[in-house]
Structure formats: structure tokens, C-alpha cells
Amino acid sequence: MSETASDTRITAEITRIPLHYPHMRNWWLLFGFSLVLLGCFFVAAGALFLNGVGMWGNNIPVNWGLAISNYVWFLGIGHAGTLISALLLITNARWRNSLNRFAEAMTLFAVVCAGLYPILHLGRPWLFYWMAPYPNTMTLYPQFKSPLSWDFFAVLTYLTVSLLFWYIGIVPDLASVRDRAKTRRAQVLYGLAALGWRGSARHWARWQQAYRLTAAIAVPLVVSVHSEISLLFAAGPIPGWTSTVFPPYFVMGAAFSGFAVVLMIAVTLRHALSLRDIVTERHLDLLARFLLTTGLMTAYGYVYEVFDALYGGQKQDLATLHDRFTGLYAYSYWGAVIFNFVPLQLLWFRGIRARPAVLFLIATSVVVGMWYERYMLLMTALYRDYLVSSWGEYHASLWEWLLFAGMIGVFLAPFLLFVRFLPVISAFEVKEALRETGDLSHA
Amino acid sequence: MTADRQRERWERAAAGRPGGVDRRTVLKAMAASLALAGLSGCGAQADEKALPYVREPEGFTDGGIRWYATAAVFQGYAQPVLGKTVSGRPIKLEGNPDHPVCGGATDAFTQAALLGLYDPARSQAPRREGRPVAWSLFERFADDLAVRLDQEKGRGLRLLTGPLSSTTMLAQIAAMMRRWPQARWHVSDPAGPAEWRRASRQLFGRVLDRQPAFDKAEVVVSFDGDFLGPGPRQTPNARKFAEARRRRQAGKGRFRLLAAEPVPSATGVAADGRLVASPGRIGRLLTALAEGLESGTLPVAGLSRRQSDWLCDALTALKAAGPRGLVIAGDYLPADLQALAMRVNHRLGSFGETMRFSEPVLTAPPDGEESLSVLVRDIDAGAVSTLMVVGANPVYAAPGDLDLARRLKTVATTIHAGTHRDETAALCQWHLPLQHDLESWGDARAVEGSVSILQPLVRPFYDVRAAAVLLAGLMGRNVSDRTLVEETWRERWGADFPGRWQQALLEGRAADTAAPAVLPTPVGAAPAIVPETAAEGLTLVIRPDAGVWDGCLSDNAWAQETPRPLSKVTWGNVIGIGPGLALERGLETGDVVTVSVGRASLAGPVRITPGHDDGVVSVTLGYGRRHEGGLAEGLGHDAYALQESTDRWQRGGLRLEPAGRREAIATTQPHQAMDGFDFVRTVLPGSAAPDGKHAEENASFYPKAPVQDPSWGMVIDLDLCIGCNACVTACQAENNVPVVGKDLIVEGREMHWLRIDHYHDGDIADPKHHFQPVPCMHCEDAPCEMGCPVNAAVHSADGLNLQVYNRCIGTRTCSSYCPYKVRRFNWFDFTGNDPETIRAMRNPDVTVRSRGVMEKCTYCVQRIAEARIAADRQGRDIQEGEVVAACQQACPTTAIVFGNIADNASAVSKGKADPRNYTLLAEANTRPRTTYLARISDPGEEKG
Amino acid sequence: MAQIFTASADTRLRAAALLAVVAVVMALVVLGGYADSSYATLVGWVEHQPVPFSHQHHAGDLGIDCRYCHASAETGAHAGLPSTFTCMTCHSQIWTGAPMLAPVRASLASGKPLQWQRVARLPDYVYFDHSIHLSRGVPCVTCHGRVDRMPLMSRSQPFQMQWCLDCHRNPAPHLRPPAEITRMDWSNWDEEPGIHAVYGELMTKVYGIEPTKLTQCNICHR
Fold first, then answer.
1. What is the second-level CATH architecture of the domain A7-437?
2. Mutate which: B62, B850, B862, vs C, most C CBs within 10 A
3. Model's pTM, two decimal places?
4. Structural domain boundaries of chain A?
5. d(Cα C210, Cα C206) in Å, to the nearest integer?
6. Which of A52, A138, A142 lies nearest to residue B829, judging by beta carbons?
């Protein structure tokens, strides 16, 4: 492949970022902040390991609290990465090429956070590996009927596949960074990471195979992982959980929150790294449309839940529904409804979809809304289940909030490193898109 | 006395007894086994070591279990028990099945007595002015004291004890009074039935004990008489009541219980017809009933419709029942009313039938009910120079106006002997640690009068002495408590002593020592009852606490954490008010208010109590303890402050002001309204529970498990349950259930494997109340088993829903999925920091759970395993009644039936075949092995 | 521009990757090996005891029956350790002055128990009952090994859950006539399968042993 002028320009523009990062001061500020949060994580987790889950607000009946709702939330966010990269790759939606790299990275780190939570919330975290099937002196294996066993595999698979997919995708760009690197150290490091990529035809062929194959593997995960997570609730006999709508409902919710975060990052990077002609207004517009669509699908889930309870007519389900509207945790229900769906309606207007700042705010509201939803689904079902006598309340303790802040750090810190040191946008794929269409917007 | 001398004392003590060698070796074994068990040096490496006995007890198998018949003493009465010792350590008390009073059952207090023995906070050494000293120092002091008393004929000496039935100690006291004629013996009995004693004098000219035969009754009408509630007579009363109820269930007669009471009680909950009535109104009702019985027409003027209906019902029922009718007036009602109630019984001809009498079991002090007031008067008169308090705590547990705290300071010499360094100990110059009943030789009489010989389950842990030994010491004799008790009975039994002694020790009850029955007739005419005065202000009702009684149990963590039967409050007392009053004053549960009568007042959180009279404010005794370092220090409020020695239990003219702040109430069940659900079902006599059976036929995707033999199951009869908590505490003792304390209870982290839910149904001012014990349901299609990712919750062939602690990693999925929320989680390390004594108390057959694991009711799997192994060894099947769950064993009404449902002849199978049998939350379709028998509604209602 | 890597860089990278994989695999193998090693299970390790008691001498040479000292093996959950008194029944007659036995005499004199180190030890949450195993004819040697050949006592079996389960899943081959449970040498038992092959199978039926039930958690955990 001979390099055209525009090619060189794009490659230069993208590889410039890791090699001579534009706004070091802001980056250091942000990174410092994320390190502080990371500190919070180690403090909160340390205290937890020393004293036990009792540090949290959990009790009987509310066995699961912030930890589990955040687990679902983070995993949902991570959902968008695979969707954009894999699904859209298979469906040859070229415009994805400007977004997939950082979407994948985001996924990766979100899944790490998600994966940490269930382990931390264990009564005896040091024995988490009993969830894995391995030959042992107890001749015992996991209990495969349990949704938690499925969770374990789902999250693990998801993590592995995302990592592979992301890394395979980044190899060619690492090579171009290596080639443009000035310092010896950079050359060697990027060189090692690039695994000796020389861009030969044979390399490209192999790469194509590998990339497409991983994508093919990743596609089912788009649906499976979150269907699976939803069963963690739907499999239990608890009013408000036992509903057939949960799997699709969760998948949509996940895509919804995922796109919101991608949109937030897209807007931010576009602005911060002045990538206006790579992440074009058209991209934002497309993301906004996706956000709207998935949002409406999620809304359907809400409607269905109400219908389900009314149609089923089980006294317990109706009670739970009533609790959602008016109970102790009604704020989380209405919080979810309002933050998720009210600002969302603005996206019907083309004018709004062209405004990055507004899009950013709407996306933020969706992320908050989805957090409320996860919290609501957990609380309203658990705090009042069958027996009136076992009703209770749950109030997250400071330690749980500290851990939450810490988790944000666990997400932010590596993501910032990624932005700083790796090509945030897949240069060669953008080039492909360009070569085929001449314009990134009309993919 | 040094430890060595104490051992010698034991050698001597043991020597006398038939088979004494065996006894001694057990006691020697104690030394080894206590070391083994961790009384000396626990921790990981300790159990790497193995410490065999130096001398094996005869026929003693390592870890061998032994049972000793003895008794725990409560309020002076013996509560007959069998003490289970493993390697010489007492680990469980169970009712003595051979004893007519308890028939194998116990109450919650008796179960908690075990913890009292091991209580790490017990006083462990004599003290003078608060500083630990050697016994020898006191012995020297006592000798001097005796000399002085001899010279002065005992002038100024006062002995103050708790209520006593111990023949030995009474004999000692008598001897003491003979030797020192001017000395005087007083009794402090803060929660005793003083008013009844007055009534009895008024009626019969002397004090008699009531021995009501509820089992013989056809109708029981109770006027604020909580005979099923806590107290020394709870077990026998409950057993007799259950007998009557079971008769009704079998269709024989239609036993009915009608209760009028201001504050809901166990009796009210069990009643077929409950009437909410203020104390004043209760007097009115009782007089009306009496008149009605005489004249045949009820004076219902001024009574509400509800009240007159209830009264008519009661009257007709009593008339119909005649001698089989029984009217009960509460121990805490004024003497006149109690006397009147007795006259009604006499009029019915129930004397000797349902209302029986016996000679008093407790011996009253010279001044009878006035005893404590007389002591105070004498102190003020300066007539008291030496006060010796033995096993009583008058500084705390006495009506506020007596103010012994101040008066004690005016006494020259004060000596206190008790198991704890309580308020009185703090104010006395001398404090002497007493032995616990379970580590002492002694004697006491059960409520029906028969004598139990107390034999120690274990050698005293600390350098403490028995009360009898102290008295003997004061009289100049240095003997063992065993010798003293033996002397007492050798004297009484003469030649038959060896035989009777052994029989008494083996059966836990000396044959034919029951108090002789009496058939008295009331003398004189009933005094005119002062008509109910127009209630100005509110009436205060003071009662002993269902958890810590009069405060004697407030250092007992089990008692503290056991939820009070109706309020489900733990670790404190509340101020009970009716819903109407709450509405009127705009009060919410948890609002702190100040209640004051005269000059006395106290502040505490209110609790809106459904079915509570709106003219009444109720408080309970036993809280507001002030002794330093005590478990109960700073918990709740002290209701003694509101008591007047002349008028203790209900006081008019009460004022109630909001304090404008709130306080967390540690309750295990915040929501008690049944909200129209059918958790507790009620059926008409002879009819089946609604959709009782069909739970079995519910469709399920799971294959139905083949029924193995044995298949364990449980049936709980809600028609018999009186919510007494005996099962809860028994379970706690049997299964090493940890205590978590007030804060964690507030956070909803109690650990009780078995809880008793209390529901109220209908109009909150006058609802129906229900109790429902909820252990693990042991579902056949258990959601918890499906949810557990690591196979820690699994099912056994014999139908147990197992929880394997050592496999559990604490995902808590099982609990999230459990529709009954019976699972308990170790949020922290609840057991690691237990004191050594508490470790020694643990049941070695039950795993001690560590931090982060789930636990729950196991149907006492350890008892099943024990029976299974025994049966297998002998190559036979497990017999019916061979496995008795701890809760079932303790239950005084035998409401809990456990056994093999594969055996159609078993009691549990019969229970499940009963038409009243129903499944809790059948809609969840988990096929529980624990089912319930519906309550039977008042047969009176049948008639429409 | 200048070469960053030498020609062989690729090969070395591949080698490194391969090594990493091998390392991980090895680590797992070592870990698994450790769990089953005698170092972890203490099999064959001799504990330091207050008195160097020789089972070889007492049980082997002198042929004292196991139950003479471990008296409650047949009746109780625990086999029981001999009291000092039991030791002295003989040693008040023989080896009365032996310095080796000084601790025993001291114990009897002082009344303080001897502190033996447990050799066959199970975790606290495992409830093993000697009596039922003996009554079914599981001989001592099955779990405790040839103590008659142990001058100093050491653990002969790993006492891991899988080891217990091996027998509970298929008890037949381990059953022996209860009359001979203390017999140590069963070598010839296996030599004449004609007679003995069926014994276990037969007895499982006689005793009504159902292996499916024997492997349930509540058999050992409570």
C-alpha cells in the first residue's frame, strides 16, 4: 500500500498524540486526581479485608448493596465497546473506525472494575477462586446451576476477549508510532508492543483473519454477558426480580449506558485532542441516534415491568411495584426514569445532536440514570420481600461510597495512561475508511 | 479460701456421696478438660496439643456426655433441669422430663442460666471498699463480727436475702435468729406477688399459693393475669394450658380463654377473646362480673358495647362451665381485686377443681410483704448497725421512694454477697462473690413445692463461695455446701437418707415433697371495691421485663438479645403507648418522651403498641442499670424510679411530655402488621386451613425428590405457640449462636437461627395478635441451593437443607433468594474474640462459624448425626422421639413437633395430616419441610 | 532510518512468549504438587513428643492391643489417649527409673497431664466418629498405617477430603471383619481374593451401607 498525502496526515495527527502529548498540564492534573481516587480504593478495600463485609450497610434482608449494583453498572458501561467494535465491524459500518479504539479501551477498564466488585463483596474474598472449576483435594466443583457461576465465566470471557480484540486492533498503530518515535526508549517499548509488525501483505492478511475472528467471537458476548448478569436477579424467586423481560432489558440498558459513556469520551477527546476532522459531527450525530434508540428500548423494559406485575397480579409483585413508586427507595426509581428518559428526548432534534456540549450533558444524565436503575432494581426487590416480618432497610456506609470513588479511580487511571501513551484512534482503519469513501462522515 | 483448700473441700464433698469416687474423678477431669477446652490458653496451636487425663474417670469416654439432674433457681423457685456436660463442661440445660412441673420443658430464663454460669463479668474475688482481698481477710472480719453479735444478742444485725425456698438456707437463717434473737431477716422480692399475699390474708387469714389447674378448665377468664407470660410459673402454666387447647383440638369440649388487659401480653395473644381495658376499667369489669354471678343480671351501665359483649360472653361461659370455670386476676392487680376474683372462683365452685391451693412454697420473712419497708424504717430509726445482703440488689431493684442508695450509707457495716458487682455491691464495704447455682450444692423447691437437690455440673471456675457456706461461715462453721445440704436432709429423712438422697439426685426431685394441697374457704365478705375513678391524666402500668425480668438477668447477653415476645425489642426497654394516644400527642415510635408521676420521672423512646389501651402508658423493669462495667450499663430506663413501695404496679396521674429527640430502638422486627397477608391462618374448629394441602401439588420443573426413610420434617402448631422464646434461647445455647449486641441488631444483623414473628391483624386499636416461630423451612426445592455457586448450600437425602460453613465463601446469594429470610451471615468475626469461659461453654458438636460465612437452622443436624450413628452401630432404624430438636425440646406447649415424615406413625406425620396443616408462602413453591398448623378461632364465634 | 531491532528480535520475542506460557503451566503444576506433597499433608513427618513413645515396641513387639490405651475407640467418637495412670499401670513395675519416662512420672505426681502433639488430626469442622467406622470393620491400619512399624508416630495418610471420599464412595474394598480391626498386616487378605473379594460387597449389603448417602456433606460436617 502506498501512502497517500491524506494518509500521512492522519497517521501523523494520531501518532502525534502519544509522542508529543499536547496538554501535559491538564493531563497531569487529571491523572493526579485519578491517583487520589485509586488511593481511596486501596484504603477502602484494605479496611474491608481486615474487618469484613460488616463495614458496609448490608444486612438481612438486604444482602446485596452498592457493590452489586455498581458491578452491574460498570459491566453495562463496558458493554458498548464490544458492540461498537465487533458488531459494527461485522456489519461493515465504517464510521465506527473513528470510535472503536477508545471505546474498546473504555470497555476493558470498566470490565476490570466490574470484575473486582463481586470479589470484594464476598464474605471470604480470599477464597474467590472456588468459583473456578479446578481439580482440588476436596474433589468439589462449582455449582453450575448457580447464576453466579455463569457470571464468573461470563465476566472472565468478556475480559479476555475484549483484551485480545483491543490489542490485536492496536498492533499496526503501535508499529506506526514506533516508526515515528524519536527517542530510543520509545522506539524499543513501542517496538516490543508492536510485536515486530512490518506491515507486510502477509502480516495484514493474518491480522485481518485474527481481527475478524475475534470479532466473531465477541459478537455473541454483546448479547450473552448482560443477559447472564440479569439472571443473577431473574433466577431468584424474589418479587420484582422474577421476570422474563430481564435479559433483553439488561442488554438494552447496558448498550444505553455504554453509548452514553462513549459519547462522553468522544466529545471530550475530540475537544481535548482537537480531532474534529476525525471524530466528525456526523459521528456524534450517529452516537446520539444510537443513544436515543437504545434509550427508548430500555424505556420499553420499564413499561413492561409495570405491565408484568399488573398482568401477573401476584400480591407480592404488586406490593414491590407499589414500593418502587412510593416506597423508601422511590427516589431511585424516579431518579432512573427522569435522568434516563427526560433529557434524552432532546435528541429527537438534529440541532441538539450537533451540539457536543449538550450531548455531553445528556450522556452524563443517562449514566447517572442508569446507576439509579441498577440501585433501584436491587433495593426495591430486597428491602421488602415476601414476609413482612423480615422487611428491613439499607443505607450504604461511607466505606461503600469510598470504595465507589476508588473504583472510579481504578477506571480513570489506566484510561488516562491509555490516552497519553497509546494511539486513541485507529489510524489505519480511518485511512481505510477514507480511501473507500473519501470522507469519514459518509461511511 | 485458696484454690487448694477449695479442692480439698471438693474431695471431702465428693467422698460422702455414693459413687463419690466417680464424682471426684469427674471433677479432677475438669482440670484436664478445662485446659483441653481452652479455659487455659485457646488459640490455634492449643488444639494441636492433646491432653489426656492423668486419672481417667471410671467409664469415662473421651468427649463423653453426661447428664446431671439439678435445678436453676429463679425468683427462689427451682427450675428443674438436666445439665448436659461434655468432658466435664456444662454446655446445655434441658428441662427435667421426670419432673411434674416442667415435664422436660424450660422457659427462656432457664435456658439463659447456662450463660449466667460462664458469664465472664461475674465477680471473681472478695472485695473490701472495692479492692480485691483474700477470703481469709473476710473470715477474720466475720469471726470478730460473730463475737460482737454474740455479746449484743445480734442487736442491729439485719440479713437481707432474695425470695427463698431453700430448706437449708431457711434452716440456717432460723438458727441464726435463734442465736442472735435481736437480729432480723428481711426479703427483697421486687417482682414477687406481694398483692396476692395480701389478698390471701384477706381471704383466708394466711398466705396460700395458688396452683391453678388450667388443664382441668373449660373456661378461663383472665383479668390482666398474664399467666402464660414470663415468670417462675410460665412453664407449668403453659403446659397445662396447652393440654386444655389440645383437648379442644381433639374436639373434646370447647376450652376458651378470655382476657381483659391494658397492655398486650402472651396471654392476650393466646386468648380467644381479648378485651383492651385500662386497669381501672378492669376493676369495674371484675366487680360487674361478680355482681352478675350473684344477681344473674349484668350491671353493664357505663360499659362500652365491646366491653359489655365481652363481659356477657365471659359470664355465660363461666356459668355454663361452673366448677370448670376459672377466673384469674393478675399478680400485680390490687389485693382487693385479686380477692374478689377468688371469691368469684369460690362462687363458681372451682376451688379444688380448677383453682387449687397449697401451703406457700417460698417462706415469707417476719414482716411479710412489708419486709423491705420495715428494714428501711429501722435503718432510718438507726436500729441497723450491720446489714448483710445475700443474693439481692435492693439499691437498684426496689421502689424508688425507698432510696436505699442513700440509706445504705447510714449503716455502719454493710456486706454484700452476689454473683455480680452490682449497684448494691458498689455501696457496701464488703463484697463477696457467690457461686452460681449450677456450680453449687444446694436445694430449692419448684413452684408446686417439691424439693430439688442442686448438684454442681462443674467445679467453680473462680474463688467464689455458696451463699449457704457464707452463712455457715458467719456462724463460725467452715463446711462445704454439700455437707450443709446433706445435713439438712439427713436430719429430715433420718434413716432413709441414703436412699432418698440418691433418688433425689438421680431424678432431680425428692419424692413426695410437694407442698400439701389445701382447700380453704374465704372468710368474711368481699370489701367494697372503690369504683373506677374518672381517670385524670394517664395511668402508668409497670411490669417486669419479658427479657431481663426485674433486672436479675440484665447481665445475661442471651436474655438481652432475645427479642421481647410482642415488641421484638432487644437490649433495652421502651415506653409503650396506644395508637390513639400516639395520634393525639403526635408521637412516632422512637420519639423520646419524659413520663413523670409525682416527683419521679424517666425518659425513654415510645413504642406505639397495637392493642394497647390509650389511657395507659406501660414501662418494664430491669433496665437503667448503673453498676459499672455491667453488660446492661446505660441501657434503657429505670422504671423502679416510678414505683412507690405502697403502690407499685399501676399509678394514676401520669404526665407525658415529648423530649423533642429520637432514639433508635433495637428491634428485630420493625414491621408487625400482617398487611392482609395470610402468613398466620385461622380456621374454625374442625375445618381445614385454606389451600393448606395443595402446596404439595403445585407444578414444578424440578423432579420430585423420592421420599427417603428417614425424612426429617417439622410442624409448628400456631394454636399452641405462646411466643415465650424458650425455643429461641435453647437454639442459641445448642448451636453456638453468637450474640451481636445492640448496634448490630439496629442494623438488622441478628444471628438467631430461630425467630418468632409477631403479627397484629386488623384494627390497630384492638387487633388480633399472632405468634409464628420461623426456623429454616428446609425446602425441598430450595432457591438457596440453586443460588450457591460453590455447593455450600446442598440438600441431603434425608431432606435437610445443609449449610456447609467451611465451603461457604459468602456470596449471600442464598439469603437473597430465600423467601423466608431465615439465613444469618457472619458480617464480622463474631466468635474469634470470645472470652475463654464462653469458648468453654460452646457445644463441641457444632462448628463455630468464622467471619464471612452464612449460617442457619440445621434441624439440629448434630443431634440427628448422633442418633444415626447410634442406630447404625446397633444395626437398627432411628426410633421416633430419638431425635429431638433443641427448640422442640424446650417448648413448654409442645407446639414444635419434629421427626421422620416417612414414618406415618410419627407425631410429625400426624401433624402434617391434620387439616389445619398449611405451608407458609406456598406461592413461592419451594416445598418447605417445615409447615404450620393454623390457629383455631374462638368457638364462641361459631355460634355467630 | 536506523534499525531498532536486530534480525533475531522476533525469534527472541517468540521464545520469551513461549517461556511465559511454560512458566505459568509449571507454576500450576508445582502448586498442585505441593497440595498433595507430604510437606503439606505431614505424611511421614514425626512430631516432637514429650516422651519418645514407640508404637513399634508396644503394639508391634509386645503386641499390646490398640484398645488397651485407646479405650474409647469402639464406643465413642474419639479413640482417646491413655491417661498417665494407664501408662503407669505397667511402668510402675518395669522401667520404673527410666529417665525416658521421667515426664510420665512427673505428670502422675503433679497431676498435670502430659502434652502430646496430635499426629492424626482433622480440622475443627470435620466430625469423625471412630465407633461407627470400627463397628463396620474399617481396621485401624487403614487410616493410621502400620503403627507397629513406627518407632515414632507419624501420619500415614494425607487426611484430605478426597482421601476420605475415596473410601466413602466405595467402602467395600476397605471392610474387614470387625473382630480383627486391630490387625495390622492384611497383605495375605488381598492374596486370596477368592474368599475375600466378595466380603466387602457382601458386608455393605448386610450393613445397608449406601455410598450415595455416605458422600453427603452432613455425614462429616455439622
1. Up-down Bundle (1.20)
2. B62
3. 0.91
4. 7-437
5. 11
6. A52
